[in-house]
Amino acid sequence: MNHYYQKNIVIIGGGPAGLGAALMLAQRGWKDITVIEKRPSADYYEPDKSFSYQIDGRGQKLTDLLKLTAKLADLSVPSTDFYFTLIQKDGTRKTTKLPIADSKRKTAYWLPRASFVELLYQEIEHHWQDEIKVLFNTKCIEIKQHLEHLEIITQSQDQEQLTFIPTLIVGCDGLNSIVRQTLHQWEKGQSNSFEMQKFPSPSSGLKYKVLTLPPQFTLSEQEGDVAQSTMAYAIRSTFKERKKAINLGLLPFKNPNQPRTANIITYPDHQIWQLETPAEVEQFMKQAFPQIPLEKMISPEEIVRFTSSDGGKFPIPQYCSGLYQIWGKPEESQGTAIILLGDAAHCFPPDIGQGVNSALEDIYVFQEILAETQDNLSQALPRYQNLRQPDIKALIRLVQISYPWQYNQDPLQKRLWSLNFFLRLLLNRVFPFIFNPHSFIMIQNHELSYSDIIAKSNRTTQVLSILVGLAILTLLLKLFN
Question: With 0-12 CB in 10 A as exposed, 13-18 as middle and 19+ as buried, what is 276?
């Protein structure tokens, strides 16, 4: 490896992408890696960010590289054992084992975001303390531009400032990335390569709140009837009106002693966003879910926290075309290079579960190119952008079409999507040499790139369009004759 790169790497953002990038670089022999993270600790619990990840074969490319997949499996519920219980408004229940649509797919693993972040951080603590330093309670407040290098200024919670002049800056700081925004400001209208290009999606703008439930919470008044940690649940409300109907969705956890999280996803004009007091929230929940003992499931303190929470909003599918920038000659340790990874470069709703997996794949692809170029940043970064850009564009399109109606926003659109899904599935089984399965299934195949998937999906759409056109033409000819 080029020994000029033995020092001064700053990674902004200590989530999965930031810690994963740090571990990848350390494994390649890089040293003096600093991760800047505004949260107070790796295991810091944020209720409104307590969602679950499904780490599939695409994300496991990196965990395999880091030799962490076995540990990941120990913390997770495998997709092969994914059981789902539907609790209807009248209290009836039905438990099914979700079928794996693609039997050839690599086993995916479900685990809470916090557990995955902690797994990566513990790997740093146990094996890479000399190479990687994670600064918690610290944020990047400014990136200064000089002729041949960049300067990063950070500030800790106690107002202490640190200055870095790094060889490499890795932007892993999410949708509102200060790294990307700074690069966009420096463009000065000359180009828009670091401005997010936004695309419509049926799920964009949906709001969500997370309700925290105790481990093994009570499901009924019957003694011993408690939730299983490895079971997924969907609890239907009695309300039917669009602005009142809600569902509680719970994904499986491996740890039986870990608090459960119930996701509530609605339109912004839903009544739940108009509730202002804990008493109003409690009354609404009791009316919505009379089939479960809410007073035993939700503490008064959680009702207060839930009421005060602003929740979150699904982002618009978006990406920037610029993924890197270089000042000076970093290959000679006389400059600074920047690369954007994960949500800092591409962000979208969680419809197809590719947020974390695409970010981990970004890191894996980056390390492959570093290996090919012997860690020469001036060669590696342009090659990374040229290789990754088409896949990012394809991914954004896949988010728009693959499964955006799963939140019951529009029953008619969901039925049309289902019709399209099963039509392609059937045609693929009968004529696999002509028709490809639905893109939602193909995404499960980590051996296909996002570009491959969208190309196959588009080809099937074209064939279907031709067949529909021929059918219409035949019908018209018959009518005229």
Answer: exposed
